[in-house]
Amino acid sequence: MPEAQLVEEMYDHTLVMLKDSLVCFEYEDVDLALTLKSRDRILDEMNAFTSDKLIERMAQDREHLRSYLNLMFVGRDLSGSAITPRTSARMPSTRPPLKIFAINPCKRRIVWNSPSAGVRP
Known about the structure:
Methane Monooxygenase Hydroxylase, Chain G, domain 1; 3 strands
């Protein structure tokens, strides 16, 4: 099924983002961390494009409808757009949000301030 290639590209993009986020965490690389937001938006655009293509194929090839739907669900899970925005908007957190306490420009390190956990690196 050639449409699976679109989801594979999303998977590759997600995997690179995951590896980079782990590098950001391990080496406290703020510059790399700041690139993740824009790359996440690209992933959302990839998901929208893939969903549009799959919907077009569903209209043309009803025999493989279940396969196209499964590919759409995989793409939505990879991008996180299916669950994250709606769930977080509806369900209030019982814990107060973490806020940036300070940024050490020498080490490019973010220090988080949390009332429940004190100050943590």
